[in-house]
Amino acid sequence: xxxxxxxxxxxxxxxxxxxxxxxxxxxxxxxSTTLIKVDGSSxxxxxxxxxxxxxxxxxxxxxxxxxxxxxxxxxxxxxCRGEIDVQDxxxxxxxxxxxxxxxxGVQFYELxxxxxxxxVAVSPQATWVDSITVAELxxxxxxxxxxxxxxxxxxxxxxxxxxxxxxxxxxxxxxxDYFTEAVxxxxxxxxxxxxxxxxxxxxxxxxxxxxxxxGYIPFAxxxxxxxxxxxxxxxxxxxxxxxxxxxxxxxxxQPLSRSLFMYVSAKSAARPEVKKFVEFYLAQxxxxxxxxxxxxxxxxxxALASEHFKNGRQGTAFQGGSTIGMKIEELLRRxxxx
Length: 338
What we know:
Layout: H1 2-22, E1 34-40, H2 45-58, E2 63-67, H3 71-80, E3 86-89, H4 95-103, E4 108-117, E5 119-122, E6 131-133, H5 134-141, E7 165-169, H6 174-183, E8 195-197, H7 200-208, E9 213-217, H8 219-222, E10 230-231, E11 233-235, E12 240-241, H9 245-249, E13 257-265, H10 266-269, H11 272-291, H12 299-310, H13 328-337
Parallel strand pairs: 1-2, 1-3, 6-11, 7-8, 7-9
Antiparallel strand pairs: 3-13, 4-13, 5-9, 5-10, 11-12
Helix pairs in contact: 2-11, 3-4, 11-12
Protein backbone atom coordinates (compact mmCIF):
# COMPACT_ATOMS: atom_id res chain seq x y z
CA UNK A 1 0.00 0.00 0.00
CA UNK A 2 2.83 2.31 0.91
CA UNK A 3 4.42 1.66 -2.50
CA UNK A 4 1.20 2.61 -4.33
CA UNK A 5 0.99 5.93 -2.41
CA UNK A 6 4.64 6.66 -3.24
CA UNK A 7 4.07 6.07 -6.93
CA UNK A 8 1.01 8.29 -6.78
CA UNK A 9 3.02 11.08 -5.23
CA UNK A 10 5.67 10.81 -7.92
CA UNK A 11 3.04 10.93 -10.62
CA UNK A 12 1.46 13.95 -8.94
CA UNK A 13 4.83 15.70 -8.78
CA UNK A 14 5.38 15.03 -12.48
CA UNK A 15 1.93 16.40 -13.27
CA UNK A 16 2.57 19.56 -11.21
CA UNK A 17 5.94 20.05 -12.92
CA UNK A 18 4.42 19.61 -16.37
CA UNK A 19 1.70 22.13 -15.59
CA UNK A 20 4.23 24.60 -14.20
CA UNK A 21 6.20 24.53 -17.44
CA UNK A 22 3.15 25.73 -19.37
CA UNK A 23 1.77 28.15 -16.77
CA UNK A 24 2.07 31.90 -17.47
CA UNK A 25 4.91 33.60 -15.67
CA UNK A 26 4.47 36.87 -13.75
CA UNK A 27 4.74 39.10 -16.83
CA UNK A 28 1.78 37.35 -18.39
CA UNK A 29 3.75 35.34 -20.97
CA UNK A 30 4.47 31.62 -21.16
CA UNK A 31 8.10 30.58 -20.69
CA SER A 32 7.86 29.17 -24.21
CA THR A 33 6.90 32.59 -25.61
CA THR A 34 9.06 33.60 -28.59
CA LEU A 35 11.16 36.71 -27.87
CA ILE A 36 12.08 39.61 -30.17
CA LYS A 37 14.70 42.02 -28.81
CA VAL A 38 14.60 45.68 -29.83
CA ASP A 39 16.91 48.39 -28.47
CA GLY A 40 18.36 51.78 -29.40
CA SER A 41 16.93 55.25 -29.74
CA SER A 42 14.74 56.74 -27.00
CA UNK A 43 13.38 59.01 -29.76
CA UNK A 44 12.02 56.06 -31.72
CA UNK A 45 10.96 54.23 -28.55
CA UNK A 46 7.38 55.65 -28.41
CA UNK A 47 6.69 54.42 -31.95
CA UNK A 48 8.16 50.96 -31.43
CA UNK A 49 6.50 50.60 -28.04
CA UNK A 50 3.10 51.37 -29.61
CA UNK A 51 3.71 48.92 -32.47
CA UNK A 52 4.98 46.22 -30.08
CA UNK A 53 1.87 46.50 -27.90
CA UNK A 54 -0.41 46.08 -30.91
CA UNK A 55 1.69 43.23 -32.28
CA UNK A 56 1.60 41.33 -29.00
CA UNK A 57 -2.19 41.70 -28.93
CA UNK A 58 -2.35 40.52 -32.53
CA UNK A 59 -0.28 37.40 -31.75
CA UNK A 60 -2.22 36.80 -28.51
CA UNK A 61 0.96 36.62 -26.45
CA UNK A 62 2.69 34.05 -28.63
CA UNK A 63 5.46 36.57 -29.29
CA UNK A 64 6.97 38.89 -26.70
CA UNK A 65 8.73 42.08 -27.84
CA UNK A 66 11.12 43.84 -25.45
CA UNK A 67 12.04 47.45 -26.28
CA UNK A 68 15.11 49.02 -24.67
CA UNK A 69 16.45 52.59 -24.78
CA UNK A 70 20.26 52.38 -24.87
CA UNK A 71 20.41 55.32 -27.27
CA UNK A 72 21.17 55.05 -30.98
CA UNK A 73 24.91 54.62 -30.42
CA UNK A 74 24.48 52.19 -27.54
CA UNK A 75 21.93 50.21 -29.51
CA UNK A 76 24.18 49.91 -32.57
CA UNK A 77 26.94 48.47 -30.35
CA UNK A 78 24.57 45.68 -29.33
CA UNK A 79 23.16 45.31 -32.84
CA CYS A 80 26.58 44.90 -34.48
CA ARG A 81 27.51 42.28 -31.87
CA GLY A 82 24.40 40.32 -32.82
CA GLU A 83 22.79 40.78 -29.41
CA ILE A 84 19.47 42.25 -30.61
CA ASP A 85 17.13 41.66 -33.53
CA VAL A 86 16.01 45.21 -34.28
CA GLN A 87 17.77 48.53 -33.76
CA ASP A 88 15.85 51.81 -33.42
CA UNK A 89 17.87 54.80 -34.70
CA UNK A 90 17.32 58.55 -34.79
CA UNK A 91 20.04 58.89 -37.45
CA UNK A 92 21.46 56.62 -40.16
CA UNK A 93 24.15 54.09 -39.29
CA UNK A 94 27.61 55.72 -39.12
CA UNK A 95 30.70 54.58 -41.04
CA UNK A 96 32.23 53.25 -37.80
CA UNK A 97 29.09 51.28 -37.02
CA UNK A 98 29.04 49.92 -40.57
CA UNK A 99 32.55 48.58 -40.03
CA UNK A 100 31.56 47.10 -36.67
CA UNK A 101 28.61 45.29 -38.26
CA UNK A 102 30.81 43.99 -41.07
CA UNK A 103 33.35 42.76 -38.53
CA UNK A 104 30.56 41.08 -36.57
CA GLY A 105 29.09 39.50 -39.69
CA VAL A 106 25.81 41.36 -39.20
CA GLN A 107 23.91 42.18 -42.37
CA PHE A 108 20.83 44.33 -42.10
CA TYR A 109 17.82 46.04 -43.62
CA GLU A 110 17.54 49.83 -43.24
CA LEU A 111 13.89 50.91 -43.04
CA UNK A 112 12.86 54.59 -42.68
CA UNK A 113 9.78 54.84 -40.46
CA UNK A 114 8.97 58.51 -39.70
CA UNK A 115 10.23 62.10 -39.36
CA UNK A 116 10.83 64.08 -36.17
CA UNK A 117 10.92 67.79 -35.42
CA UNK A 118 13.81 68.00 -32.94
CA UNK A 119 12.54 70.66 -30.54
CA VAL A 120 14.44 73.40 -28.71
CA ALA A 121 12.54 74.03 -25.49
CA VAL A 122 12.57 76.22 -22.39
CA SER A 123 10.36 76.67 -19.34
CA PRO A 124 7.28 78.87 -19.89
CA GLN A 125 8.82 81.11 -17.23
CA ALA A 126 11.62 81.99 -19.66
CA THR A 127 9.46 84.78 -21.07
CA TRP A 128 12.36 86.53 -22.80
CA VAL A 129 12.94 83.87 -25.45
CA ASP A 130 10.49 82.93 -28.21
CA SER A 131 12.90 82.30 -31.09
CA ILE A 132 16.57 81.61 -31.60
CA THR A 133 18.92 81.43 -34.58
CA VAL A 134 21.10 78.45 -35.43
CA ALA A 135 24.11 80.74 -35.00
CA GLU A 136 22.98 81.56 -31.44
CA LEU A 137 22.52 77.87 -30.69
CA UNK A 138 26.05 77.27 -31.92
CA UNK A 139 27.37 80.02 -29.64
CA UNK A 140 25.72 78.21 -26.73
CA UNK A 141 26.75 74.65 -27.58
CA UNK A 142 30.12 74.70 -29.40
CA UNK A 143 33.10 73.22 -27.50
CA UNK A 144 34.81 76.61 -27.10
CA UNK A 145 31.79 77.86 -25.13
CA UNK A 146 32.56 75.56 -22.21
CA UNK A 147 33.14 77.56 -19.05
CA UNK A 148 32.91 80.84 -21.01
CA UNK A 149 29.36 81.26 -22.31
CA UNK A 150 27.47 80.99 -19.05
CA UNK A 151 24.78 83.69 -19.19
CA UNK A 152 21.77 84.39 -21.39
CA UNK A 153 22.98 87.95 -22.02
CA UNK A 154 26.09 86.61 -23.75
CA UNK A 155 23.86 85.14 -26.46
CA UNK A 156 21.65 88.16 -27.04
CA UNK A 157 22.12 91.50 -25.27
CA UNK A 158 18.37 91.92 -24.68
CA UNK A 159 18.23 88.66 -22.76
CA UNK A 160 18.72 88.75 -18.96
CA UNK A 161 22.06 88.68 -17.22
CA UNK A 162 21.19 85.33 -15.65
CA UNK A 163 22.90 81.91 -15.66
CA UNK A 164 22.35 79.83 -18.80
CA UNK A 165 21.78 76.17 -17.98
CA UNK A 166 21.89 73.72 -20.87
CA UNK A 167 20.16 70.34 -21.04
CA UNK A 168 20.73 67.83 -23.83
CA UNK A 169 21.08 64.26 -25.01
CA UNK A 170 23.89 62.04 -23.81
CA UNK A 171 26.78 61.06 -26.07
CA UNK A 172 25.31 57.61 -26.88
CA UNK A 173 22.19 59.26 -28.28
CA UNK A 174 21.54 59.74 -31.99
CA UNK A 175 19.82 62.97 -30.99
CA UNK A 176 23.16 64.23 -29.64
CA ASP A 177 24.88 63.28 -32.90
CA TYR A 178 22.25 64.95 -35.05
CA PHE A 179 21.92 68.15 -33.01
CA THR A 180 25.67 68.76 -32.75
CA GLU A 181 26.19 68.19 -36.47
CA ALA A 182 23.21 70.37 -37.43
CA VAL A 183 24.06 73.22 -35.05
CA UNK A 184 27.83 73.12 -34.44
CA UNK A 185 28.79 71.59 -37.77
CA UNK A 186 30.35 68.35 -36.56
CA UNK A 187 28.75 65.34 -34.88
CA UNK A 188 29.62 65.06 -31.17
CA UNK A 189 31.35 68.46 -31.15
CA UNK A 190 29.85 69.95 -28.00
CA UNK A 191 30.72 71.64 -24.77
CA UNK A 192 30.70 69.13 -21.94
CA UNK A 193 29.34 71.23 -19.07
CA UNK A 194 25.64 70.53 -19.55
CA UNK A 195 23.08 68.18 -18.01
CA UNK A 196 23.04 65.10 -20.24
CA UNK A 197 20.86 62.01 -20.44
CA UNK A 198 19.83 59.34 -22.94
CA UNK A 199 16.40 59.38 -21.24
CA UNK A 200 14.27 62.11 -22.83
CA UNK A 201 11.88 62.17 -19.87
CA UNK A 202 14.81 63.21 -17.69
CA UNK A 203 15.55 66.04 -20.12
CA UNK A 204 11.92 67.19 -19.98
CA UNK A 205 12.16 67.41 -16.18
CA UNK A 206 15.44 69.32 -16.34
CA UNK A 207 14.01 71.94 -18.71
CA UNK A 208 10.58 72.30 -17.13
CA UNK A 209 11.87 72.75 -13.59
CA UNK A 210 14.35 75.57 -14.28
CA UNK A 211 13.44 78.86 -15.97
CA UNK A 212 17.13 79.43 -16.82
CA UNK A 213 17.41 76.15 -18.73
CA UNK A 214 17.35 75.50 -22.47
CA GLY A 215 17.48 72.07 -24.04
CA TYR A 216 16.56 69.97 -27.05
CA ILE A 217 14.23 66.97 -27.14
CA PRO A 218 12.26 64.94 -29.71
CA PHE A 219 8.89 66.44 -30.61
CA ALA A 220 7.09 63.40 -29.18
CA UNK A 221 8.41 64.31 -25.73
CA UNK A 222 7.58 67.99 -26.11
CA UNK A 223 3.98 67.59 -27.27
CA UNK A 224 2.55 65.80 -24.19
CA UNK A 225 4.46 68.21 -21.93
CA UNK A 226 3.65 71.48 -23.73
CA UNK A 227 1.90 72.89 -20.68
CA UNK A 228 5.20 72.54 -18.82
CA UNK A 229 7.48 73.49 -21.71
CA UNK A 230 7.69 76.20 -24.37
CA UNK A 231 8.94 75.37 -27.85
CA UNK A 232 11.39 77.92 -29.23
CA UNK A 233 11.05 78.75 -32.94
CA UNK A 234 14.32 78.11 -34.81
CA UNK A 235 15.66 80.47 -37.48
CA UNK A 236 17.74 78.48 -39.95
CA UNK A 237 18.15 81.49 -42.25
CA UNK A 238 14.60 81.95 -43.52
CA UNK A 239 13.06 83.38 -40.35
CA UNK A 240 11.83 81.66 -37.16
CA UNK A 241 9.86 78.45 -37.70
CA UNK A 242 8.14 76.46 -34.97
CA UNK A 243 8.26 72.66 -34.90
CA UNK A 244 5.10 70.93 -36.13
CA UNK A 245 3.90 68.22 -38.47
CA UNK A 246 3.11 70.87 -41.09
CA UNK A 247 6.56 72.51 -41.00
CA UNK A 248 8.27 69.12 -41.26
CA UNK A 249 6.10 68.05 -44.19
CA UNK A 250 6.60 71.31 -46.11
CA UNK A 251 10.35 71.28 -45.41
CA UNK A 252 10.47 74.67 -43.66
CA UNK A 253 11.63 73.41 -40.25
CA GLN A 254 15.36 73.26 -40.89
CA PRO A 255 17.89 72.09 -39.92
CA LEU A 256 16.25 70.21 -37.01
CA SER A 257 13.84 68.10 -39.04
CA ARG A 258 15.22 64.55 -39.22
CA SER A 259 14.39 61.05 -40.39
CA LEU A 260 13.99 58.07 -38.05
CA PHE A 261 14.94 54.49 -38.86
CA MET A 262 14.57 50.86 -37.93
CA TYR A 263 17.44 48.45 -38.67
CA VAL A 264 16.65 44.75 -38.83
CA SER A 265 19.25 41.98 -38.61
CA ALA A 266 19.07 39.83 -41.75
CA LYS A 267 19.74 36.74 -39.63
CA SER A 268 16.88 37.63 -37.30
CA ALA A 269 14.59 38.43 -40.24
CA ALA A 270 14.87 34.78 -41.30
CA ARG A 271 12.88 33.90 -38.18
CA PRO A 272 9.13 33.87 -38.97
CA GLU A 273 8.15 35.90 -35.89
CA VAL A 274 10.66 38.69 -36.66
CA LYS A 275 9.59 38.79 -40.31
CA LYS A 276 5.97 39.06 -39.22
CA PHE A 277 6.83 41.82 -36.71
CA VAL A 278 8.63 43.93 -39.32
CA GLU A 279 5.77 43.53 -41.82
CA PHE A 280 3.29 44.45 -39.07
CA TYR A 281 5.43 47.46 -38.11
CA LEU A 282 5.51 48.87 -41.65
CA ALA A 283 1.76 48.34 -42.02
CA GLN A 284 0.85 49.99 -38.70
CA UNK A 285 3.40 52.82 -38.38
CA UNK A 286 1.55 55.25 -40.72
CA UNK A 287 -1.32 55.20 -38.20
CA UNK A 288 0.64 54.88 -34.96
CA UNK A 289 3.43 57.43 -35.64
CA UNK A 290 1.11 60.48 -35.59
CA UNK A 291 -0.60 59.13 -32.48
CA UNK A 292 2.72 59.45 -30.63
CA UNK A 293 3.37 62.85 -32.29
CA UNK A 294 5.75 61.94 -35.08
CA UNK A 295 5.35 62.73 -38.77
CA UNK A 296 4.48 59.70 -40.91
CA UNK A 297 6.16 59.24 -44.26
CA UNK A 298 4.17 59.28 -47.52
CA UNK A 299 2.52 55.93 -48.41
CA UNK A 300 5.07 55.31 -51.17
CA UNK A 301 7.87 55.38 -48.59
CA UNK A 302 6.36 52.50 -46.64
CA ALA A 303 5.59 50.64 -49.85
CA LEU A 304 9.24 51.03 -50.88
CA ALA A 305 10.50 49.86 -47.48
CA SER A 306 8.19 46.82 -47.63
CA GLU A 307 9.45 46.04 -51.13
CA HIS A 308 13.10 46.24 -50.01
CA PHE A 309 12.38 43.95 -47.06
CA LYS A 310 10.42 41.46 -49.15
CA ASN A 311 13.05 41.36 -51.91
CA GLY A 312 16.01 41.07 -49.54
CA ARG A 313 17.58 44.43 -50.42
CA GLN A 314 20.02 44.97 -47.57
CA GLY A 315 22.45 47.75 -46.63
CA THR A 316 22.14 51.50 -46.23
CA ALA A 317 21.32 54.36 -48.57
CA PHE A 318 23.63 56.70 -46.64
CA GLN A 319 26.98 54.88 -46.22
CA GLY A 320 27.76 56.85 -43.09
CA GLY A 321 26.92 60.18 -44.75
CA SER A 322 25.03 63.14 -43.29
CA THR A 323 21.27 63.66 -43.40
CA ILE A 324 21.32 67.22 -42.05
CA GLY A 325 18.72 69.34 -43.85
CA MET A 326 17.25 66.32 -45.61
CA LYS A 327 13.60 66.64 -46.54
CA ILE A 328 11.12 63.82 -46.97
CA GLU A 329 11.40 63.95 -50.78
CA GLU A 330 15.20 63.54 -50.65
CA LEU A 331 14.88 60.58 -48.28
CA LEU A 332 12.53 58.93 -50.79
CA ARG A 333 14.94 59.55 -53.68
CA ARG A 334 17.86 58.02 -51.81
CA UNK A 335 15.90 54.97 -50.74
CA UNK A 336 14.58 54.46 -54.26
CA UNK A 337 18.10 54.51 -55.76
CA UNK A 338 19.76 51.99 -53.48
